[in-house]
Amino acid sequence: MSQPHAATVAEVLVWANLRGTDSHGVSRIPRYFEMIEAGDLDPRAEPRLKTESAACVLIDANRAAGPVAMTAAMAAAVARAKQAGIGLALVRATTHTAALGYYTLKAAGEGVAAIAASASIPNMAYHGARAAAVSTSPLSVAVPGGELGPVVLDMGSGIVSIGRLVQARRQGEPIPEGWALDDAGNPTTDPRRAEIPLPMAGPKGSGLALMIECLTSLVVANPILAETVGHPVAGRRHRQNALAIAIDIARFGDPGAFAREVDRLARTVKALPRDPAVTEIRMPGERGARTCEKRSRDGIPLPRPVCDELACAAEKLGVAMFPVPA
Q: Can you list the positions of beta strands (E) in the chain?
């Protein structure tokens, strides 16, 4: 990759580790190499503007790294929101977009509310089915805050992400019942056999994933699910489409008043009577912010299997790597 693109990918991956979303952090690097070798990710691709208007833009990513395409998309959405009140950037033909909260939180830091979503190849069961039919399509929403900071929701439509299953497999951790199916469609708690995550909240999770496919892939005329379900060869090729939406808070009211109301809402919810089993009521993104503060101070812990994979990749590519403790 070019140095700026490599820096963008590195920043987004390390951000995920800092926030405690290790399934979307540097453990993804070996997979990105696989995607490059398979021709699914073009490290030299430059996202291009295809169509644009006062409030909308279509970006053809040309199989560029997802963080590169999504950073460009959110920047374009924010710029248009500042001009028109709202901005929409659709992204066609990108690759793994990493943790979407990175882009929405960055936009919130510029005083706008933001939404990001992405669609990918079928890797999650549709409710009632015993085969992969939809993607674990992630969704993130962030709003600027006041003294308590921004509020950011960053979630997938599955009970568990593919990255989390891979993480459990690497570390040999058993997974809970109801998380995943094996490749034959049978429920399993064995991380070595878990291949297909189940949708969050049954029909709600799979319905959300289906609609994200409609709002991204179908709108940009680059369908993924219908092209790949039941077609193993096509289904193995990595493909993604995405969207970024920005809303200029200042266009509709006083940003300071909005931030104060976000804080007031957060304090109201956090002061509610707690379930005895819960030590604290937290806002979306609050745990990640605390983890980021701690890991920024103390360092990011990496499991031995992840260190070993990175060391292997570094050796293969002739890249110097810091010494890994024994």
A: 48-52, 56-60, 86-94, 112-120, 124-125, 132-134, 139-143, 151-155, 180-181, 187-188, 196-197, 240-248
